[in-house]
Design goal:
CATH superfamily of the largest domain: P-loop containing nucleotide triphosphate hydrolases
Strand content: 25-35%
Number of domains: 2
Shape: elongated
Mean pLDDT: 90
Number of strands: 20
Order of helices and strands: EEEHEEEHHHEHEHEEHHEEEEEEEEEE
Structural class: alpha+beta
Strand order of the largest sheet: 6-7-8-3-9-10
Low-confidence stretches: 360-367
Number of helices: 8
CATH class of the largest domain: Alpha Beta
Largest sheet: 6 strands, mixed
CATH architecture of the largest domain: 3-Layer(aba) Sandwich
């Protein structure tokens, strides 16, 4: 079994707390992504698991073993680094075989494993070349092949695609996900690229300031951020956040926004509170003509992206990103009207930055 458990793990560097009391359970065969901005503690947490950093407090378990004080070589982990870390003086074949030789595997096993993982990663024809004779994407495949050849309990990946160009990164992302699905390996993957996290992971652990602020499936992290930070960080473009105050209006409620008034239903528990109304760009319908319960906004800029247009608009004092069809080209300075999809509205407390739970029947009043 290759479960991983972090229990109240803490790591400091002088006065800086890099990992702050982290608890995380990773199931056998699960692919978990540690996602966050630079300096949030994700790589330090990975290095603590690998044994490259010593924790100040807390415990780390790999399978049924307490690995907290074990040296790296006894943790039965493999690691793929951002910088490929292949040996330039060894042929590809010997790079892949390096870990197996260190484990003193028989020559027959080494040959079989090398040829097997090379075929899996499509680099069989490169086995007799040196790293200087192959491309960056191919060198990264060699690094991955070396890591999986030793069949460790846990595979660790520290931003393995960040040095590749955009097109190659897209290709490698799909290949790597398919490979890990086939292997069924327990994998912990560090990245600051939220597209990688959303497209690859079974679960995402979003980190900020050394802590995990949300741990959930990619869809839940994207659609139901538990903090404003998560909505701001995850998604391209980020979630829109509008300052709002919910007030009672006759038999219903309204959200007072800087750009107008939005009728609501089923959010009576929010009345009187100063909040942020969160909404994704694709959850806002853009119309060229005024209609009931639509908010007027002025177009700032229109960015054609091929499959759709990303339009920046100003509603009152708020700037929003909205997604429209690729046929819709409003001129900068012109007016459009915005209709918010009711069940895609998320509420964030303005003081704490934390998500506010509301009844599931919330809605914008029908036209």
């Amino acid at each position: 079994m290759a479960e991983v458990r972090f229990q109240s793990v803490r790591k400091t560097f002088g006065k800086v707390t890099a990992v702050d009391d982290v608890d995380l359970d990773v199931a056998d065969g699960e692919f978990v992504v540690l996602l966050g901005p630079s300096g949030c503690g994700k790589t330090t947490l990975l290095r603590c698991l690998a044994g490259l950093e010593t924790v100040d407090s807390g415990r780390i378990h790999i399978g049924n073993r307490d690995a907290t004080d074990l040296p790296p070589r006894r943790r039965r982990i493999s690691m793929v680094f951002q910088s490929y870390a292949v040996f330039p003086h060894l042929r590809v074949r010997d790079n892949i075989a390096f870990g197996l030789k260190m484990q003193k595997e028989p020559s027959r096993v080494i040959k079989e494993r090398v040829e097997s993982v090379a075929a899996l990663l499509g680099i069989t024809d490169l086995l007799d070349r040196y790293p200087s004779q192959i491309s960056g994407g191919q060198r990264q495949r060699v690094a991955v092949a070396r890591a999986i050849a030793v069949r460790s309990d846990v595979l660790l990946m520290d931003e393995p695609l960040s040095n590749l160009d955009a097109l190659l990164r897209l290709q490698m992302r799909a290949e790597l996900k398919a490979l890990l699905l086939e292997l069924g390996a327990t994998t912990i993957y560090v990245t600051h690229d939220q597209t990688e996290a959303l497209s690859m992971g079974d679960r995402i652990a979003v980190m900020q300031g050394g802590r995990i602020v949300q741990l959930d499936t990619p869809l839940e992290v994207y659609d139901h951020p538990t903090e404003k930070f998560v909505g701001d960080f995850v998604g391209t473009p980020p979630m829109n956040f509008l300052a709002a105050r919910v007030e009672q209006n006759g038999g219903g409620q309204v959200a007072q926004l800087s750009g107008g008034t939005l009728p609501l239903q089923g959010v009576g528990d929010l009345v009187g509170r100063d909040l942020f109304l969160g909404i994704r760009a694709e959850a806002i319908a853009v119309e060229a003509e005024p209609s009931d319960h639509a908010i007027r906004a002025a177009v700032v800029v229109n960015e054609p992206l091929g499959s759709h247009n990303l339009i920046t608009v100003r509603a009152g004092t708020d700037l929003l990103k909205v997604s429209a069809g690729n046929h819709f080209f409003p001129e900068p300075g012109s007016d459009v009207w915005l209709r918010l999809v009711p069940d895609k509205i998320r509420w964030i407390d303005r003081d704490s930055g934390k998500a506010v739970a509301v009844t599931r029947d919330q809605a914008v009043a029908p036209a």
